[in-house]
Amino acid sequence: MSTREKILEEVLVEEAIDLNNEIILYNDDVNTFDHVIETLVKVCNHTLEQAEQCSILVHYKGKCTVKTGVLAELKPQCSALLEAGLSAEIV
């Protein structure tokens, strides 16, 4: 394997690892479906349908991955969800 191929492989592995971050949204007894849906549309750029599906999954399953991606992009989104009163974390 050439040096160039090794570097390319390292970059691909790094990118794959970097994209494995997720924002998990948790169920609570405080927020309404409408608030959760509006917040997901605003903060995570979900379509209305995506946000509705996530809110239903959170309600019945207790949690749902609402966004995946690069940690640097997810941090401000997760903070915005928390500021809106939702329960979320990055894993």
UniProtKB/TrEMBL annotation:
Gene Ontology BP, a term: proteolysis
Name the UniProt record assigns to this protein: ATP-dependent Clp protease adaptor ClpS
Top-rank lineage group of the source organism: Bacteria
Pfam family, any one: ClpS
Protein keywords: Hydrolase, Protease
Domain Adaptor protein ClpS core: 22-83
GO MF term list: peptidase activity
Lineage of source species: Bacteria, Pseudomonadati, Bacteroidota, Flavobacteriia, Flavobacteriales
Keyword ATP-binding: no
Gene3D superfamilies documented for this protein: 3.30.1390.10
